[in-house]
Specification:
two-stranded antiparallel ribbon; elongated; 58% helix; 434 Repressor (Amino-terminal Domain); 2 strands
Length: 267
């Protein structure tokens, strides 16, 4: 759901509940708990003339995992509903229109696939979460904020910020209610400043995974000594193998997120 398509925060919340499995059973109780009210009071807000307070609006925005722009719009929706004069309602509507227009312009701009711009690379490669979210969004099970945030182990609000960045960077796009990775593979030049951080990010993730290795995974550490000639010959063999693996991955159906780390280093 795109909150910018709504003119009523009550309709947005109701549609959120109805979009969940089993018709959102139990969701109203969870929302009521999140904003510290009784379920009956929440029902009166959604189905009658009562409105949320400012504190409740912010708490609900956080619970729903809205990013900063979406939270601004949600609060404006609440303020417009609470306003008692036409002048006040028009003021909040104008602010809402400005936010909606900026969202439309952003969507048009980011519809064109592009490489990660140099000015964005420092953020994209600062944490495994960005490239991890991009890979996960190529898998149908994780093309929504709810499941994506769970898999990444982060709050929905943080996940929304990451997804917004990925869309801005052109490596993901939003289609209806799904977040989808653009098919182009991202790559960092070995001369790029970000390469070291990128390598660290995913080697740390591999280390965290070592005590959970499954049958479909493989980890190897093998310190050894070799001749000077074999040092370079094995490096070339690893490069050929890496290309073969990557070619196979590009043709493979996206079902399981994995990371390949290869080290052939002297000590």
């Amino acid at each position: 759901m795109n909150i910018f398509d709504y003119s009523s925060y009550k309709s947005f919340v109701k549609d959120h509940v109805n979009s969940l499995p089993r018709g959102g059973r139990g969701e109203l109780s969870r929302i009521a708990k999140a904003i510290s009210v009784h379920t009956s009071s929440l029902s009166q807000v959604l189905n009658a003339e009562k409105d949320l307070t400012m504190d409740q609006s912010l708490s609900l925005s956080e619970y729903l995992g809205l990013n900063s722009r979406e939270t601004d719009y949600f609060v404006l929706l609440v303020n417009k509903s609470r306003a008692s004069t036409g002048k006040a309602k028009n003021y909040f509507q104008t602010r809402m229109n400005d936010l909606k227009q900026s969202d439309v312009e952003l969507a048009v701009l980011l519809d064109q696939p592009k490489e990660v711009h140099n000015s964005l690379k420092s953020v994209y490669y600062s944490s495994w979460l960005y490239s991890g979210a991009r890979i996960l969004s190529s898998i149908s099970n994780y093309q929504n904020i709810e499941e994506l945030s769970k898999r990444l182990g982060i709050e929905k609000s943080k996940c929304n910020e990451i997804v917004d960045f990925l869309i801005e960077a052109g490596v993901c796009k939003k289609m209806t209610n799904r977040i989808i990775a653009n098919p182009e593979h991202t790559h960092i030049s070995t001369k790029a400043h970000e390469i070291d951080q990128h390598r660290r990010n995913w080697r740390i993730k591999a280390l965290e995974r070592l005590d959970q290795i499954s049958n479909g995974e493989y980890a190897l550490s093998a310190p050894m000594s070799v001749s000077q000639n074999d040092l370079y010959a094995i490096k070339e063999e690893l490069q050929i193998l890496t290309k073969k693996i990557l070619d196979r991955c590009r043709a493979s159906k996206s079902e399981v997120p994995v990371c390949l780390n290869i080290d052939w280093v002297q000590f």
